[in-house]
Amino acid sequence: MERRFLLGMPVALGLALLLSLFPLIVPIYWVMLATEILIMGLFAMSFNLLFGYAGLLSFGHGGFLGVGAYVTALFLIHGSWSLWFILLASILSASLAAFLVGFLCVRRDEIFFAMLSLALGMMLFAVAHNWREVTGGSDGLPVFAVPPLSLGLWKLSLFAPSSMYYFTLFWFATSALFLWTVVRSPFGLMLQAVRENKLRLSFSGTDVRLVRLAAFVIAGGLAGLAGFLLCLFNRMAAPDMLHWSFSARPVLMTILGGAGTFWGPAVGSAIFFILEHWVTAFTENWMIVLGSLLILVVLFFPDGIWGTLSKATGERKEQV
Amino acid sequence: MEAMVVNVLNGLSWGMLLFLISVGLTTIFGVLGVLNFAHGSLFMLGAYGTMSLMRFFPSFWAGVVIAPLLTALLGMGVEITLLRRVYLRDVSYQLLLTFAVLLVLDDAVRILWGAAYHVVDPPASLAGTVGLFSHSYPIYRLFLIVVGPVLGLGLWGFFTRTRWGKMIRAAAQDRQMAEGVGIRVPLLFTLVFGLGAWLAALGGALAAPHQSVGPAMGERIIIESFIVVVVGGLGSFPGAFVGAILLGLLDAFGTLFAGRVQMALPYVVLAFVLLVRPRGLLGREG
After folding, report:
1. What top-level branch of life does the organism fall under (chain A) (predicted)?
2. Contact with chain A for residue B100, Cβ under 8 A
3. Which of A96, A124, A143, B117 is deepest in the core (most CB within 10 A)?
4. Are A120 and B263 in contact (CB < 8 Å)?
5. Is A138 in CB contact (< 8 Å) with chain B?
6. Of A55, A130, A288, which is closest to B103 when you measure between CB atoms?
7. Which residues contact B218 (CB under 8 A, 6 or more apart)?
8. A248 and chain B: CB distance < 8 Å anywhere?
9. pLDDT, average across residues B209-214
10. Spatial separation of the C-alpha atoms in residues A106 and A104, rounded to whole Å
């Protein structure tokens, strides 16, 4: 552990340096692609807290990203609120939604959990899609003006791609640090124990539902943060963000990268978008390529691409 | 009153298509333990296949016979090359593998047939309408309402009366015991997946004149048939029948009594059943 930490430090510092210099060395298109990778990577990492650590396959995670995005869009459209306030409101409302949905979902396991989270997520989708007066129905809510971000005396406009990138990078890093602390904490250990043996854990006096619910709320809140960022990035909130097929995206990214690893989902997000970028340059049939790749990963690399790589380089699995 | 009858008939005809695809889905789950996400794509292949075969053969029925058989072969290929490797793995991975197959099949359909929607005419013998009170009602939908229970009864006979049906049920009950008494389980699994694919594609073939044939038809029906099998009880045959009729009627009556909330109704039912009675309406204990 200590040795690995020491070895990992230069790599991590190098990566951090690269990420922070990114907008200075690559064209703007790639800066925007990187922003999207970070947002969806954050979304996938929040999903992985449920899937990779607690063994809960949620097919409704898009619902919480959607709540965050709609709350952001609604505040931005109705009045000039501070971005910091809107950020907080998105996280809190997504956490609240996750609490309500999770309260019901954590009672079930495996396929039943997947189906229940899908059903409840689709109810959120139905609200976004049909409550036209508030959500704009299937058109979504376009955002035309974003107030500048105030950092003390300094004001930053997020309309510039590079400032949006840095803003996203900051929240990605903060959330990653937070998630890292969570999975290394006693609570994180309990989560993995829930996955390994639910019954034994409950015999040892742990309230399994409570542990799962707490994970659900944390994951939902971070998905809401991703929704806030995605709404600023796309300048709109759309009902598609809550549909089950959008919820399938973090699932795919996590599997691609590696479900049992901490960074796997973010790596998966990068693979997803970079591959999409390359493939769509040749053909519009990107899904058939993604599907085939996914089949290969599920069959031959169950640890995902990142997980397999870190195993192959002689490191132990990142898991605690 | 008339509107009521028309709605019931609409609900039943959609319900019967749902039943065909759900009964295959639930059989595969009961025996193989895999919830097949690609089942809707097989339904779609049945519809597209029938449409294309009608160009080579002058008859709709040729398509209804041949397309599901071809789809069943494809399904067996998928079972042998892919699914077989993940039976011992976590259910999540089985679900994800079939989801990946869905991505491939759906995009393959888009490559082969394009993104346009197509209309398939019902065969001449079932075209036209009959008078129903002061309304006229399409004969083809009435045909679907009849064909559903007939196929259901046929399947029930197959599972309870024939040797193969009994072997399938034995394997579903206890795989090891079935192997012990000499049933070749791997072969049986392949055949069961083929049967499920055949049923899905048959549903798709029969659905072709009922709705427009387009690339989104698989996605809609897969979620609805998930709801049917979970509500009815995973692995339960009569459950699939009851669940399909329930969903079909909900589809037909939803807009009448729920208005804009109609879209969420199937999910409300799904969530309610999962919370109150997770084994489904007719599912067995445990």
Report:
1. Bacteria
2. yes
3. A124
4. no
5. no
6. A288
7. B40, B41, B43, B44, B102, B105, B106, B109
8. yes
9. 87
10. 6
